[in-house]
């Protein structure tokens, strides 16, 4: 009988750290694009050595779960990012790329908005309202693009669906490029900022009111508006 089984070696501490962080990424507790705690904080949270944390982070990076940006920290990557990113880079120059991408977003994000209206926690809703406040007060276009991604990402996370969270994590990296098309005419920037803020407010209100039908309709209207303005400014990305 002893020949049938092999003794199971104990895992290294760094492997245990790796497994915990990986699980949080896969299940959507750490969102694509989100910054994970720094090494020193993780060392304290796990009660392990800094070298164990560093080894775990390196393994996560090698396997494509995170990306380390020098001087800025370690950020979560979507587990679907590499294949989708490669495809999008190939398709970016195609005339119908933007329309095709937006059609997919409309399908995914109208469902996400409706589902968020049913599943969002009080914490999710409070976070969405805080992002809206930032949107109303931001001064630069770049900040507008970043907040746009942040809001859509938070709506997606409120669905509690890890598959959607990672798919949208891959798609949303292109969202700032699309939004730049909407804001392309600087003379109309304040007008469009106001309109987009109104649209986002309608979406968040519907989610806060627990109204899936209105949340879906508001998201569809917003994405169709975005598509019209982006394609008007440029035929393709």
Number of helices: 11
Supply the CATH architecture of the largest domain.
Answer: Up-down Bundle
CATH topology of the largest domain: Four Helix Bundle (Hemerythrin (Met), subunit A)
Stretches where pLDDT falls below 50 for ≥5 residues?
none
Span of the ends, CA to CA? 64 Å
In what range is the share of β-strand residues? under 5%
Characterize the biggest β-sheet.
Answer: 2 strands, antiparallel
> What class would the helix/strand composition place it in?
mainly alpha
Q: Helicity level, as a percent range?
A: 55-70%
- Widest beta sheet: strand line-up: 1-2
**What is the total domain count?**
2
Q: What is the name of the CATH superfamily of the largest domain? A: GntR ligand-binding domain-like
- Order of helices and strands, N to C? HHHEEHHHHHHHH
- The averaged pLDDT comes out at 83
Q: What value does the Rg take, in angstroms?
A: 20 Å
What features would you describe in this structure?
This protein is mainly α. The protein has two domains: 13-76, Orthogonal Bundle (Arc Repressor Mutant, subunit A), CATH 1.10.10.10; 81-233, Four Helix Bundle (Hemerythrin (Met), subunit A) (Up-down Bundle). It is 69% helix and 3% strand. The chain has helices spanning 13-26, 39-46, 50-62, 81-91, 97-119, 122-137, 141-157, 162-172, 175-182, 189-208, 212-233; strands spanning 66-69, 73-76. A two-stranded antiparallel ribbon has the order 1-2. Helix 5 (97-119) packs parallel to helix 10. The longest helix has 23 residues, at 97-119. The radius of gyration is 20 Å and the shape is elongated. The termini are far apart. The relative contact order is 0.13.
């Amino acid at each position: 009988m002893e020949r049938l089984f092999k003794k199971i070696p104990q895992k290294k501490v760094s492997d245990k750290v790796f497994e915990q962080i990986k699980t949080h990424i896969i299940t959507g507790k750490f969102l694509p694009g989100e910054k994970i705690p720094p090494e020193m904080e993780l060392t304290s949270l796990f009660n392990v050595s800094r070298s164990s944390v560093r080894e775990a982070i390196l393994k996560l990076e090698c396997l494509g779960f995170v990306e380390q940006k020098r001087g800025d920290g370690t950020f979560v990557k979507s587990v679907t990012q590499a294949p989708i990113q490669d495809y999008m880079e190939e398709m970016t120059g195609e005339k119908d790329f933007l329309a095709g991408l937006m059609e997919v977003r409309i399908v995914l994000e109208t469902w996400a908005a409706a589902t968020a209206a049913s599943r969002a926690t009080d914490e999710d809703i409070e976070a969405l309202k805080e992002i809206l406040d930032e949107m109303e007060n931001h001064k630069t276009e770049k900040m507008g693009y970043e907040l746009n991604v942040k809001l859509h990402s938070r709506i997606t996370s409120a669905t509690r669906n890890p598959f959607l969270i990672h798919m949208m994590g891959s798609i949303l990296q292109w969202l700032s490029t699309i939004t730049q098309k909407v804001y392309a005419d600087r003379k109309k920037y304040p007008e469009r900022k106001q309109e987009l803020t109104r649209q986002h407010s309608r979406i968040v209100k519907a989610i806060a009111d627990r109204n899936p039908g209105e949340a879906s309709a508001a998201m569809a209207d917003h994405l169709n508006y975005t598509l019209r303005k982006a394609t008007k400014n440029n035929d393709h990305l």
